[in-house]
Amino acid sequence: MGTTSGICAPLSFVLDGELAGGDGDRDAGPARQPECPDSPGENFAHHRPVMPAEVLSLLAPEAGGLYVDATVGLGGHAEMILSASPESRLIGIDRDQESLHLAGRRLERFGERVRLVHDDYRNIREIVGSQAGKVSGVLADLGISSYQLGARGRGFSFQRDEPLDMRMDRTSGRTAADLIAEESEKELARILFEYGEERSSRRIARGIVEGLRRAGSTGRDPIRTTGDLAHLIERIIPRRGSRIHPATRTFMALRIAVNQELEGLDRFILDSVEVLQARGRLVLLTFHSLEDRLAKTTLRTLSRRCSCPRSLPRCACGTPDLVRLLSRKALRPSREEVASNPRSRSAKLRAAERI
User: Fold this and answer.
1) Of 116, 122, 245, 342, which sees the most CB atoms within 10 A?
2) What is 154-259's CATH topology?
3) CB 229 within 8 A of CB 218
4) 354: Cβ contacts below 8 Å, ≥ 6 apart
5) Which residues of the chain have pLDDT under 50?
6) 3-state class (DSSP) for residue 230
7) What are the extents of the domains in the chain?
């Protein structure tokens, strides 16, 4: 893996694997210089890590430990971990190059205690490498960040008319525009129903396919922008006074599909547990019912593998439990946090300790 010293990340240690890891170099074309926001300081000022006190309490960082922030984003949680545990080290992973560059600025003061990696968090075993079994804690703040939603040109939101992209890693993979142009009506309906829980999934999928067909027959541009898609869905499902825009669930479903957010999440949880040292902790923040259900089921499975009677002093069946759950139910943000940080309202926090 190489390093970079791009204009958004003046220190050479900041990015490890700028163009490597995951699918980063698969048909990606020329390397793209990450864009810098006009005022990164303002991004830091408005970026609030979700449930900070609860995350620190469950992760319990100790001096000299090695921690992995598997979705480092703008570095808010990472900064807390490094500040709370002197001489600790942190590996920060993210698919979004632009977020990594901003995290590099935020964490610059920690020097070589930080290693930031442009990769998919599901490759945690390969990223940690020889440090497997020595990691004190893993944190994953899943889902999309408020920075990604607000950044221009990303196509995650229909608040602005811009290219229908939605990729967290803009160096690889299909855009949302590519996905709707290439998938069948049946597959589009499945994506909208399963990932967005959209009750009108079939009507919307049919409308998208018909819209693309009409555009092709008249020589007009297909659905290429967020505005194109949002206006099309509004024609299919009128708002009728609802406060929620009719395209909201479709946009969420397409984002999940484009970034394959649910694929491999259970494997990531198992791999995270396996890179932990004894009594190391895994902390997961979820923001969507589907990913929370996967996290909950996987953690429970890893905590109930042993079939021996509990009266035995140790496992005799050959499949000992891997983790101890640190809370019976998911923790939720306080009313005060939701009032000051609306992004936190759907958050659920789960944690487990390696046995």
Assistant:
1) 116
2) DNA polymerase; domain 1 (1.10.150)
3) no
4) 273, 276, 277, 278, 279, 280, 281, 282, 322, 323
5) 1-45
6) helix
7) 3-143+263-354, 154-259
* Continuous H helices in the chain: 40-46, 52-59, 76-84, 97-106, 124-128, 146-150, 176-182, 185-196, 201-218, 226-236, 248-259, 265-275, 289-302, 335-340
Distance CA 291, CA 95 (A): 18
Instruction: For residue 177, give the amino acid letter.
Output: A
pLDDT for the residue 110: 97
Query: Can you give the pLDDT at residue 31?
Result: 33
Q: Identify the pLDDT of residue 218.
A: 66
Nearest C-alpha neighbor of 276 from the set 139, 141, 136: 136
CA distance 238 to 309: 58
Tell me, rounded to whole angstroms, the distance of Cα 275 from its chain centroid: 19
Return the closest-CA partner of residue 94 out of 22, 38, 166.
22
Which of 49, 56, 122 is closest to 88 using CA atoms?
Answer: 56
In whole angstroms, what is the distance from residue 322 CA to residue 304 CA?
8
Tell me the β-bridge partners of 284.
Answer: 140, 350
Find all residues with CB under 8 Å of 14, minimum gap 6, and list them. Answer: 3, 4, 5, 100, 101, 104, 108, 114, 116
Contact in structure between 62 and 85 (CB atoms under 8 Å): yes
How far is residue 143 from each of residues 176, 240, 281, 302, 341, measured CA to CA in Å? 16, 30, 20, 23, 16
Secondary structure percentages of the chain, helix, strand, coil, to 5? 45, 15, 45
Which CATH number applies to 3-143+263-354? 3.40.50.150
pLDDT at position 147 is: 83
Radius of gyration of the CA atoms of the chain, in A: 21
Distance, CA of 344 to CA of 285 (rounded, Å) = 10
Would you state the pLDDT for residue 8?
Answer: 37
